[in-house]
Amino acid sequence: MGHLMGHRLLTVALYLLAALIGVVALFYPFFLPALPAAGLDEPALRASETPLLATLLVTLCLAVLLVELQGQAAGAKTVAALGILVAATATLRFIEVGIPGPAGFSPIFAPILLGGYVFGARFGFLLGSMTMLVSAIITAGVGPWLPYQMFTAGWVGLTAGWLPHPRAPRAQVALLIAAGFLWGFIYGAIMNLYTWPFLAGDPRLTWTPGAGLSAALGRYAAFYVATSLVWDAAAAAGNVILLAALGWPAIRALARFRDRLQFRVEYH
User: Fold this and answer.
1) I need a labelling partner for 247 at 20 to 30 A (CA). Which of 207, 239, 241, 261 fits?
2) How many CA atoms lie within 13 A of 259 on its CB side?
3) Domain range for 239
4) 144 in any annotated domain
5) Residue 238: its pLDDT value, please?
6) Contact 115/123 with Cβ under 8 angstroms?
């Protein structure tokens, strides 16, 4: 019992550390006294952070997997299931790049939400993070934005695992549809923070060091509406359509896969 509790605490600590690193990486520029106006296309400071952040995140994910391998809750079956789902979801992004859909639409977030919902929050975090890493490699999408995509996609899967699991299938699908709709906007809003503090331009839309919280929120809201709202609305609509069409069959298929591998899943 004590051995299992130790594994659980260590795993939770690693997830919390990964989440904390992501939050700090996104928000620390707002606490600096001054920022370089690096421009939209090449934020130099962010680019210099990328190798360190990517290495930290991949190392933490590997550490989590090593800890999981030692526990009875999942073991090697977690790694097997994770590898299959990461490969399948990353392939969807390859298709997305090869055959672009409507602006903002991406098919990869529905599987991340479904995987996190069925297999649990910790599995969902790894699924989101590792999917972004693998898909970036196979689509030549590696850049300074990658670690922030990994953190945020990981949070998508993590929060899916926290959703309630009512008995009614329609209620489960409705919860996932609501989560997919919200994350269509939240993902874009979080990813904007990767560049927004460094942009120069209209002072009504850009960040100014020393501005108060209310002024910063107002400027960011105006920036978001002007630059990202339509794009993210397409992403949200795509998530809703995919989850409405495939949600319950996918939940049943993934649950059967989970049960055949004899997972012991704990919902939080």
Assistant:
1) 261
2) 6
3) 2-22+36-260
4) yes
5) 92
6) yes
Instruction: Look at residue 28 and tell me if it is in a domain.
Output: no
As a whole number of angstroms, the distance between CA 114 and CA 97 comes to 22
Number of folded domains that form the chain: 1
Q: In the Cβ-directed half-sphere of 209, how many Cα atoms lie within 13 Å?
A: 10
pLDDT higher than threshold 70 for residue 264:
no
What single-letter DSSP state applies at residue 201? S
Collapse the DSSP code of 226 into the 3-class scheme (helix H, G, I; strand E, B; otherwise coil) and give the result: helix
What is the DSSP code (8-state) at residue 29? G
Q: What percent of the chain has pLDDT over 90?
A: 42
Q: What is the CA radius of gyration of the chain?
A: 19
Q: Check if the beta carbon of residue 92 is closer than 8 Å to that of residue 111.
A: yes
Cβ(35)–Cβ(196) below 8 Å = no
In sign, the C-alpha dihedral spanning 68, 124, 12, 28 is: positive
Distance of CA 170 to the CA centre of its chain: 25
How are the residues of the chain apportioned to helix, strand and coil, as percentages rounded to the nearest 5? 75, 0, 25
Could you give the 3-state DSSP secondary structure of residue 200?
A: coil
Contact 192, 228 (CB under 8 A): yes
In the block, which residue shows the tokens 């209620």? Answer: 171
209 located within any domain:
yes
Q: Tell me the pLDDT tens digit for each residue of 87-102.
A: 999 988 877 776 666 6
| Rounded-to-integer distance, Cα 111 and Cα 157, Å | 9
* Residue whose pair of structure tokens reads 């926290």 in the numeric block: 162
| Joined tokens for residue 184 | 């269509």
Q: Give pTM, 2 decimals.
A: 0.87
> How many CA atoms lie within 13 Å of 233's alpha carbon, on the beta-carbon side?
7
